[in-house]
Design goal:
about 120 residues, alpha+beta, PH-domain like, 2 domains, four-stranded antiparallel beta sheet, three-stranded antiparallel beta sheet, 3 helices, elongated
Length: about 120
């Protein structure tokens, strides 16, 4: 049997010409027909509501209003998009990996595409 060629081995994720290993699962490349990315943006409703409550609270107790506004703005600024690797196969689509680092997800997708091409 031929030796596996490694296309990516980073942060516990491994892509070879035969398999895609994530933290929770091993996927056989033979069943994967295509690979894509998907971006998930978190809901910003919560921090906006807290900031609006802070504006209302300014009229009642100014210090409480400032605390709520600061908390809402801090929460809003801390929200980050998540990026997913989506595998397509004959049985449908599967979200195989999620990370906040878009460059890492891009490297994983590139490695998976190279591995699929290598398999022929």
């Amino acid at each position: 049997m031929a030796e596996e060629k490694v296309f990516l081995d980073e942060r516990g994720i491994k892509v070879t010409n035969a398999r895609f290993v994530t933290f929770a699962k091993t996927h056989a490349l033979s069943g994967i027909t295509s690979v894509s990315t998907f971006t998930v943006s978190p809901s910003k409703k919560g921090p906006i509501i807290v900031a609006v409550l802070g504006l209302i609270a300014l009229a009642i107790k100014w210090w409480l209003g400032l605390i709520l506004i600061a908390a809402g703005v801090g929460w809003f600024l801390s929200l980050k998009d998540e990026y997913q690797v989506v595998l397509s196969s004959a049985s449908g689509n599967e979200d195989a990996l999620t990370d906040r680092d878009s460059e890492f997800i891009g490297r994983v997708v590139d490695a998976l595409n190279e591995a699929i091409i290598h398999r022929g």
